[in-house]
């Protein structure tokens, strides 16, 4: 059992200066029993250490970006080099071309790319571009998908907003919310109805092709194909939000679906990226078909800009991170560890009769405390929130850091080892034992 007095002190102090004590609401422990979140001091590889000296095995990976572990030497060297050469010019660099090339090679639907500073910005801009291109206003999104915190997509939003019980954020004008139509994920019939009803107004259908924000959820066989077909037949654009999914499951995106069983390769019109492509520094990117991207200034009339966009530190970290991920056997190894870990967790849940559904995709997975499958947002909501909170606390007390939300995934990194996995399985069994008592 760990003690965290310094975290508690810092939390009290933080509350006086920072709203809610955290700079992103998903970091708060509100949904897992409240109290002070853990204040971290440093991190290396698959571990971090808090301000009280406790060590944790990290399965958060900062909500995705830290796929090569913390302070990976290759990434750190790239950041150091960039810092020594000046962190921002407000003028273009060769580095940006290099990362754009790497993204295009891995994601062929991106003829043209633009770098921004976050996934939120990337998604927000794809919507603007789609509206400019189609001269239409509305978008369709899927319930429980999270696409960042811009106005239009904070309707029926999974991840943090759902965790905190505010899937429809306050502060979104009704005039804007009415431009979003929400349908259930994996439900082509509902999509069809929405397109029939509002077809002429739909600029785009936005989707996380593999969902990462109400757990990890795979599209049903034929779902993305059907989505794409109907959307295009309607003259609307398909936008893939791959902020989580790109470079998470294999080197590339979900668009090269040969990597996934029973899925067709689909090339969306626009793609939003973030997280992993910045190697742990702030980044986002969007891109797509040349004629669509030519809407963007300075070529076209759709405006998007950024003082920090394409900064050499983020770009260098991103290049270095992708270079590590190009290494031989990197993804199969993460998957192998995830298979071992999920098998061990499932066995523990069974032993102590705790209902648990695990959705695993390559080296990432989600744990749903329920005895039904989780294929859409409704099923992800209909799980035992209290059981997750207990599990989270027991794992934390044994030195294993998960996201403090039942909707978020566990992420393996290149730095986790078999020893970490086996220790985690042991801790999970102990957590279930305590929960069963
Ligand atoms: N889209 C998806 C699918 C995401 O998971 C996230 C972040 N969790 C975002 C967009 C927003 O990215 P950011 O937090 O970098 O703004």
From TrEMBL:
Catalyzed reactions: (S)-4-amino-5-oxopentanoate = 5-aminolevulinate
UniProt cofactor(s): pyridoxal 5'-phosphate
Main EC class the enzyme belongs to: isomerase
Compartment annotation: Cytoplasm
GO biological process terms held by the UniProt record: protoporphyrinogen IX biosynthetic process
Gene3D superfamilies referenced in this protein's UniProt entry, alphabetically: Aspartate Aminotransferase, domain 1 (3.90.1150.10), Type I PLP-dependent aspartate aminotransferase-like (Major domain) (3.40.640.10)
First-listed, main subcellular location of the protein, grouped into a coarse class: cytoplasm
GO CC terms of this entry: cytoplasm
Alphabetical UniProt keywords: Cytoplasm, Isomerase, Porphyrin biosynthesis, Pyridoxal phosphate
EC number: 5.4.3.8
A Pfam family recorded for this sequence: Aminotran_3
Alphabetized GO MF terms: glutamate-1-semialdehyde 2,1-aminomutase activity; pyridoxal phosphate binding; transaminase activity
Pathways involved: Porphyrin-containing compound metabolism; protoporphyrin-IX biosynthesis; 5-aminolevulinate from L-glutamyl-tRNA(Glu): step 2/2
Modified-residue entries (N6-(pyridoxal phosphate)lysine), positions: 275
NCBIfam families with a match to the protein in the record: hemL, PRK00062.1, PRK12389.1
Subunit structure: Homodimer.
Family: Belongs to the class-III pyridoxal-phosphate-dependent aminotransferase family. HemL subfamily.
Name listed for the protein in its UniProt record: Glutamate-1-semialdehyde 2,1-aminomutase
Gene that specifies this protein: hemL
């Amino acid at each position: 059992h760990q003690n965290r007095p310094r975290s508690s002190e810092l939390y009290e102090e933080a509350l006086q200066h920072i709203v809610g004590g955290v700079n992103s609401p998903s970091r708060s422990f509100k949904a897992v029993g409240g109290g002070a979140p853990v204040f971290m001091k440093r991190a290396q590889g698959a571990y971090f250490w808090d301000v009280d000296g406790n060590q944790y095995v990290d399965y958060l990976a900062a909500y995705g970006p830290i796929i090569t572990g913390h302070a990976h030497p290759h990434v750190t060297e790239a950041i150091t080099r960039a810092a020594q050469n000046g962190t921002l010019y407000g003028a273009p660099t060769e580095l940006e071309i290099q990362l754009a090339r790497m993204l295009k090679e891995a994601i062929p639907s991106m003829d043209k790319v633009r770098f921004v500073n976050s996934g939120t910005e990337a998604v927000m801009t794809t919507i603007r571009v789609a509206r400019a291109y189609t001269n239409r206003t509305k978008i369709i999104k899927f319930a429980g998908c999270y696409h960042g915190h811009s106005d239009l997509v904070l309707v029926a939003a999974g991840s943090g907003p759902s965790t905190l019980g505010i899937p429809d954020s306050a502060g979104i004008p009704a005039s804007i919310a009415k431009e979003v139509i929400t349908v259930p994920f994996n439900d082509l019939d509902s999509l069809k109805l929405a397109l029939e009803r509002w077809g002429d107004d739909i600029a785009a259908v936005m989707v996380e092709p593999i969902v990462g924000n109400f757990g990890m959820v795979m599209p049903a066989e034929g779902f993305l194909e059907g989505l794409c077909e109907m959307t295009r037949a309607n003259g609307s654009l398909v936008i893939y939000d791959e902020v989580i999914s790109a470079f998470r499951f294999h080197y590339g995106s979900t668009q090269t679906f040969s990597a996934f069983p029973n899925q067709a390769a689909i090339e969306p019109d626009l793609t939003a990226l973030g997280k992993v492509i910045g190697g742990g520094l702030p980044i986002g990117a969007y891109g797509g078909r040349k004629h669509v991207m030519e809407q963007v200034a300075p070529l076209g009339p759709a405006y998007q800009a950024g003082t920090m966009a394409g900064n050499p530190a983020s770009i260098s970290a991103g290049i270095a991170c992708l270079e590590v991920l190009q290494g031989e056997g990197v993804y199969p190894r993460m998957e192998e560890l995830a298979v071992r870990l999920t098998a061990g967790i499932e066995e523990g849940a069974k032993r102590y009769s705790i209902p648990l559904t695990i959705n695993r995709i390559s080296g990432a997975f989600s744990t749903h405390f329920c005895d039904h499958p989780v294929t859409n947002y409704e099923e992800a909501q209909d799980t035992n929130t209290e059981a997750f909170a207990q599990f989270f606390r027991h794992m934390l007390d044994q030195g294993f850091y998960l996201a403090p939300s039942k909707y978020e995934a566990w992420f393996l990194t290149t730095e986790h080892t078999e020893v970490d996995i086996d220790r985690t399985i042991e801790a999970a069994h102990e957590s279930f034992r305590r929960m069963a008592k």
